[in-house]
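Can't paste images in this forum, so I'm doing it all in text. The chain is below; anyone willing to post the predicted structure tokens underneath?
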Amino acid sequence: MSEIACPLFGTKTNTSVSSLQLDAEYNISISKTIDNPSCWDSLAKDNIYLSSKFLNFVVANPPSDISSRFVSIYKDEKLKGIVYFQIKDLNLGRAMRLDRQKSKFYDLLKKIRHSILSLVNQKILICGNTLVTGDNAFVIQLDISPREKNELVHACIESVIAEEKKVGNSIRSILVKDFYKDISKSKIQFDHAEYTDFEVQPNMIFQLHEDWKSFDDYLAAMKAKSRTRIKRAIKKSTELEFKTLTVAEIEEHNEEIYNLYKSTSDNASFNLFLLSKNYFLNFAKTFSSKFKLHGVFKQNQLIAFYTTIEESKVLDAHFLGYNRDENYQHQLYLNILLKLVQRAIYLQKKELCLSRTAMEIKSSIGAEGFEMNTYLRSKNSLINKSLKRILDSVAPKEEWVPRNPFKK
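Text version of the structure:
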């Protein structure tokens, strides 16, 4: 840290930077891009999702209706913290898509809930990253208590809201995401009296055994019933070709890839954003060594794809898309999960991060659900006091049964 000069003032930047004094001890700067990557990365370190390269990529390839803000925290003119924000134009009715959850009995209730949620049409400030699951919101390197860190993050949030108000952006709600309930799994934690915590879908993480050197080792560790089910699914994929695409091939299939992604995204019960049309192509160009896009072909026709991001010890499943009409015949989704396991074993990773959604099928191949909390606050004091009750009444709850495919 001492070898990197990270001045608060005097650095030439490509965007306007607001410099503010929080109190006698702390100064912060707020900007729309990271113009001094070496400083930012001195704290982000090996977290790819907080790295300047990844976040500036998000700035250059923004999801729909999302913009970024970057806060740097200084004490005694030394960089001590970084906080990442996204500002989202949110309509909860569109985002939650309750009408896609099929149930005749609850149709009327869903319409009422959808109408209520559609009234929530506002700018929301998100501390963290909507594109990925996990605790990637901030890093604070200060020898202070957890309570003081929470207050410092809260002060940064208030400062961003104040700066946005100056340019006509009225922030109505604040979301601080994502935090593991299991402290041993966490890089960071957050808790503050003004914010309501609520449980979100767990992050599904597959933890690999050290003695697994091949996919056969993984199958051998399974119960007979689970192994039979997996082999039956694999047989349904024998006429398919699974292939890691080059950048040139991604460019060739760019339209098909995006259509598969959008079709899958449109059928999700909850979605905060839509990726830009060239997101995957530009990602592959920018992160050629860490990012891979894998295509699934049937008779030379692309019917599915899935993407991976390689960290030092973790393989992350990023976005995917598949033809729903082909899914049942070939058990596409399950076979994609199995290919991800196979790749994680081949790369000798310690974990495969499968993110949220489809928890039961992910647990059936060996992933475990790690519970997570997110924190919400409304600028309307009356609404803020009732948030717990509101969330309990309108937020969809997905029931699922954890599976364990392995021998005891």
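The two ends are 47 Å apart (CA to CA). The chain has 15 helices and 14 strands.
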